[in-house]
Amino acid sequence: MNSFIEELKWRGLFADMMPGTDEQLNKEVTTAYIGFDPTADSLHIGSLIQIKILAHFQQHGHKPIALVGGATGMIGDPSGKSAERNLLDEETLLHYVDCLKNQLSKFLNFDGNEPNKAELVNNYDWMKNISFLDFAKNVGKNITVNYMMAKDSVKKRLSGDAGVDGMSFTEFTYQLIQGYDFLHLYQNNNVKLQMGGSDQWGNITTGTELIRRKAQGEAFALTVPLITKADGSKFGKSESGENYWLDKKKTSPYKFYQFWLNATDDDAERFIKFYTFLGKEEIEALIEEHKTAAHERKLQKKLAEEVTVWVHGREEYEKALKASEILFGRSTAKDLVSLDEEIFLEVFDGVPQKEIAKTDVLGVNIIDLLSEKSGFLKSKSEAQREIKGNAISVNKQKVNDTFTANETDLIDGKFLLLQKGKKSYFIVKVG
Ligand SMILES: N[C@@H](Cc1ccc(O)cc1)C(=O)O
Questions:
Q1: How many domains does the chain have?
Q2: Which residues contact 128 (CB under 8 A, 6 or more apart)?
Q3: How large is the average pLDDT for residues 92-120?
Q4: Are 219 and 323 part of one and the same domain?
Q5: Considering the domain boundaries, does residue 326 fall inside one?
């Protein structure tokens, strides 16, 4: 079997392929593509597998093309969707296309000297010049409506099931446009294979069919499974339903890191194969080691490290790690003071906060600060009692009743972190 397919298989990243795909990859350096529709100004965790497949493909000596769907993004892929999508206005769409191009270009090797260097294309570049009449005549004629209607993405929407919308002609044409992309890339870029999530099988095979009919050629399809969590809940969304984005301005590297760190043991075993580039032996050894001391969460830590470094770089990972350690008390006051505001507030998300004038914080005795100045504790006597009981920390360091904060104690020049016992926090913001 071809080494790329073999790798997908042991990683659990193989869903299906057309007969002959294996032989094609063994025969020659093959060009394959995966498309990404611009539905937001960033890709999210849900697209990481597709990106990684392209990267593996390149590592195995083949040539990857990442396609940004400037044209298809205008239409909206009905695959796996139960309701019609809203159309984007052109300005928004163009912006999204730029964002995606930028992001995708960071993940593959575009080095000009390699024969299998990656390429980035935008289907709007060839679709924009095709008139509707030409498309209807030259493309539509090769595929029957019967054939198109037999696809899952269409069947589902015509089923009349509760909660499922009908389908506009716009979305119905989507598979033909994606099919035409494949034909175009087959004819112009020597693309012989299209890959994608398993929900893309229908669209991809419309393309191979079109290539067969219009170009008398043979092209192939390979799909990867849709990622789910072991407990059946949706992968890649926070509890409140938000996406985890790849753009660090939309999801901070700290949050991103936490996402992987919080994987269950079952998920961590799967995800480390899916989402890291570590080899089989190393992963198997890690899993074995993890089983002997699962509470140490070594597997999750390795997973979170590898993926965060891959997506955000080592420096951002180090920062995320440092921030995470603060919560678990494995950091020094100096680490804390050097955090920037954004990370600090993220780590202590949800902790009550009060803004207090500088003169009521700096140089003020801790008993007063804890009680009347901040209101964190109800009274001076409570403050005294807790301090005696050695339960009070400032910036994660235990303090006694002589403590007063000064300028150098302020986190990013603005905050002081008060704490009672293990878990009760209060943030003083110096105004
Ligand atoms: N339909 C794909 C994106 C895509 C767009 C154009 C293509 O030619 C290929 C794939 C998706 O929604 O994920």
A1: 3
A2: 71
A3: 94
A4: no
A5: yes
